[in-house]
Amino acid sequence: MKRLVILGAGESGVGTALLGKEKGFKVFVSDKGSIKEKYKEVLIHNEIEWEEGRHTESKILNADVVMKSPGIPDKVTLVQKLIANNVSIISEIEFASQFTKANIIGITGSNGKTTTSMWTHHILKQGGLKVAMGGNIGDSFAKQVLDSNYEHFVLELSSFQLDGIKTFKPHIAIITNISPDHLDRYDYKFENYIASKFRIVMNQTKDDYLIYDADDDAITSYLKSHSVQSTLLPFSLTKKLEQGAYLENNNIKITIDNSQIIMSTANLALEGKHNIKNAMAASTVAHLLKIRNHTLRESLENFQGAEHRLENVLRINKVQYINDSKATNVNATYFALESMEAPTVWIVGGVDKGNDYKQLFPFVNENVKAIICLGVDNKKLFETFENMVDIIVETQFMSEAVKIAYKIAEAGDNVLLSPACASFDLFESYEDRGRQFKDSVRKL
C-alpha cells in the first residue's frame, strides 16, 4: 500500500485525502497550523489519520508521495529533507488529474484568471456541458474527481500549483497575462516566475491548445525563445490575427481553422479593456468546444463577475463605491485605474511584494484626486505619490478609510479599493478585506 502524505489540511488537502483513500493509498494529513473544524470532521468521519500544530517527521519522511499545499515554499527544511530523500512532491492538480478522463481547461496568469475561469465555466454550463470548476477557486478538484462524473473541468491555476506538476496536461491552456508577482518565491527573478507559468504547456502536444494574450511582452518574448508544442491561439486588442481572437470596430472576431464567429462587445457583462481580453479567452474555449453562437453571446452578456474584482458595491450621494480587494499586485490595480472614467478616491496599501508603482503614474495624474493608504507601513506609498495628489492620508482601519473617502468624494466621483498589495498585515485575506470594505460602505 503506497503511503500518501498531505501537508496542509485546507480545501485541496482534504479533497486529496478523500480521493487518495478511495484509490487505495494509506493517507496521513499533517498541518503545522490548526485545522478548521469542518475539515477535521471530514477527516474523522472518513477515518483518515491527521495531526495539527506540528509536522512529525517520522510520519512524513517515509512517504511514497507527498501532496504539498501551494502555500508551503520549497525552501522549508521539511520539504528540503523530502527532496533529499527523493520523495515525489506534487500538487493536488497533479494528483487528481491522474484519476479523471475529463477534458481539462487550465487557466493561469498574474491577473484575470479568476474572472476568465468563472466566465468560461458559465459559458460551458449554459451550453449544456457537464462542467465543474476547481483549482484555485471553488471546491477541491480532487474531491470533484472523486464525487462526480464531470466531462469537463475548468481549473484556475496559480504558479505554485503549476510548480507541483509532472505529467499534468490540460487539453486547453490559457495564459491571461504575466506581470511581476510573488517574486519572493522565485528568487526575485521575473524569468523564473514566467517559466513557472509556462509549465502549464510543458506536457501539451500539437493536439492541445494554448490561448494567450498576444499583447503581453513577457508571453510573446517567451514564445519567441522557447519551443512550445501546442497549437497557438492568441488574442489581441491591437493586432489583426489570422488564428485566434482580435478586436475590430468593437467586435470580437474569433477564427479557428477557417471557422469564424463575430460578437459585439457592446453588451459585455463586465466593463474595461481587460475584460474584453477575458471575454476573448473564454469565447475561444467555447468556440473550440463547439458551443452555439447564440448561447455564447447570451453568456457573455448575463455573466455575474467575481466577488472582490471591480465589484460595484453601492452608489451613495452619486458616489460609486467599488471593491477591487482582489487586486493584490500593481498590474491588477493598473486595470482598475485604467477603467475609472471619473475622479477617483483611491484606497491602496498592505503588504508590498516589491512593488514598482511607475506604471500607475499616468492614471494617478489623470484621475486620482486623493489617496488613502491602508497598511501597517505606508512609507513607500507616501514617497511615491505625495507629490502627485492634493490629499494623501493614512489609516489602519477599513471603517476609517471609508469614512475619510466619504468626506472627500463629491457627486460623480468613484471611491475605489484597489490595494495593489497583499492583505495579511491588517486582514485575514483579500476576501476579508473586501468584505470589511463592503460592510463599512453599507454602514455609511
TrEMBL record:
Domain Mur ligase C-terminal: 308-421
SUPFAM superfamilies noted in UniProt: MurCD N-terminal domain, MurD-like peptide ligases, catalytic domain, MurD-like peptide ligases, peptide-binding domain
Residues reported to bind ATP: G109, S110, N111, G112, K113, T114, T115
Localisation: Cytoplasm
Transport as UniProt keyword: no
Keyword GTP-binding annotated: no
The EC number(s) this enzyme carries: 6.3.2.9
InterPro entries linked to this entry: Mur-like_cat_sf, Mur_ligase_C, Mur_ligase_C_dom_sf, Mur_ligase_cen, MurD
UniProt entry keywords in alphabetical sequence: ATP-binding, Cell cycle, Cell division, Cell shape, Cell wall biogenesis/degradation, Cytoplasm, Ligase, Nucleotide-binding, Peptidoglycan synthesis
Pathway it works in: Cell wall biogenesis; peptidoglycan biosynthesis
Gene Ontology BP annotations: cell division; cell wall organization; peptidoglycan biosynthetic process; regulation of cell shape
A single Gene Ontology CC term: cytoplasm
GO terms for MF: ATP binding; UDP-N-acetylmuramoylalanine-D-glutamate ligase activity
One protein family per Pfam: Mur_ligase_M
NCBIfam families in the record: murD
Protein name, entry field: UDP-N-acetylmuramoylalanine--D-glutamate ligase
Protein's organism: Pontimicrobium aquaticum
